[in-house]
Design goal:
Helix content: 25-40%
Number of strands: 14
Strand order of the largest sheet: 1-9-8-10-11-12-14
Strand content: 15-25%
Radius of gyration: 20 Å
Distance between the termini: 42 Å
Structural class: alpha/beta
Length: about 350
């Protein structure tokens, strides 16, 4: 395969590709009043604020405090892969001595020290969505990401009709959730399709635009790609954009997470299957766990949030898409900045 300015192919069986692009500016979005009259303050720090996944998670977090004397602050970087911004927020709210912090870490290791310092300061810390390698947090609530990656492999393997390479589009290597999805996918695809090579692509910032450019180049250079698996919403959006612009390309594609474009991709036949997480549940139960910890109640160390598989067979069933529907005006009023 010819070398590209965006990626380079190595000779190992599972090819690892690194993709770099210009960094986005970090924008902090405040989704609630500043710390004030409320008796207890819980801060939720998402990986990002502009993606559909985090907007729905925001609603779940706010619904968890209804009827309670709690001040909820939603604050995070605008886009994902901004661990320095999350470090800044962790330090800031640790100094403010808030009662609890619920965080979806962008990096599985870089936030460890700041999380440990928050716990040492007496703050209850709940990890959601992605793991960290420190054992300091009181609880962890997330999809079983390794198992979800295995599921992606099973879904894709059943649709692959050629012996060409499989394209695995990861997020960033530091992202704990997507790393586990990649590992689960590779382990399972090697069992199901032994001998079939996997091209593994990593993003620097994990944006839809990066994925779109890189995936477009790869598909132009390697028309023999047998199937594609993308590990989250922006990477799935990027692949769908490329496939939608090339109606002549018909490649089995399993996407991860959900939004209206990906659901439409299923209806149009461009997305073979969608593995959808439950962001509302992550937000709701993450904050609920923080409340219980503040109140001295016992909370389990881990809680799994199951995924939902969406295909053409069930995409038009109303109950399947309940968590994907557009937010109501009432829900938007809870957190207006989250929906700008």
């Amino acid at each position: 395969m010819p070398e590209s300015r965006f990626f380079h192919t190595y000779t190992c069986r599972t090819t690892i590709i690194r993709f770099s692009a210009a960094l986005f500016l970090v924008a902090y979005l405040l989704c609630s009043p500043a710390i004030g009259h409320a008796q207890k303050t819980i801060v939720v720090i998402p990986k990002a604020t502009i993606l559909n996944f985090w907007k729905i998670l925001c609603v779940g977090a706010h619904d968890a405090i209804k009827g309670q004397d709690i001040n909820l602050i939603w604050r995070g970087p605008r886009v994902e892969n901004k661990s320095k911004a999350q470090q800044h927020l962790l330090k800031f709210y640790t100094d403010k001595k808030v009662e609890a912090i619920v965080i979806a870490p962008a990096d599985k290791e870089k936030l460890n020290q700041d999380i440990e310092e928050a716990v040492q300061a007496g703050i209850k810390v709940v990890i959601i969505d992605s793991p960290v390698t420190t054992t300091a947090p009181q609880t962890y609530i997330a999809t079983d990401n390794y198992k979800a990656g295995e599921l992606g492999a099973q879904m894709l393997a059943g649709k692959i009709k050629s012996t060409g390479p499989i394209l695995l589009i990861g997020h960033t290597p530091e992202n704990g959730a997507s790393f586990l999805r990649e590992k689960g996918f590779i382990d399972r695809i090697n069992e199901l399709l032994p001998g079939q090579s996997v091209i593994r692509l990593h993003m620097e910032n994990g944006s839809e635009r990066e994925t779109r450019i890189a995936a477009g180049e790869i598909l132009n250079a390697l028309p023999s790609i047998a199937g594609i698996f993308a590990v989250n919403e922006p990477t799935s959006d990027g692949v769908l954009h490329v496939l939608s612009k090339h109606p002549d390309i018909s490649i089995p594609f399993i996407a991860f997470d959900n939004n209206k474009n990906l659901v439409q991709g299923i209806k149009d036949g461009k997305v073979s299957g969608l593995i959808a997480q439950k962001p509302y549940a992550l937000g709701f139960f993450g904050v609920n766990a923080a409340i219980d910890l503040i109140d001295g109640k016992k909370v389990g160390r881990t809680m799994e949030s199951p995924v939902t598989v969406i295909t053409q067979d069930n995409v038009n069933i109303s109950s399947t898409l309940k968590c994907l529907q557009k937010m109501t005006e009432r829900e938007k009023a809870v957190c207006p900045i989250c929906f700008n």
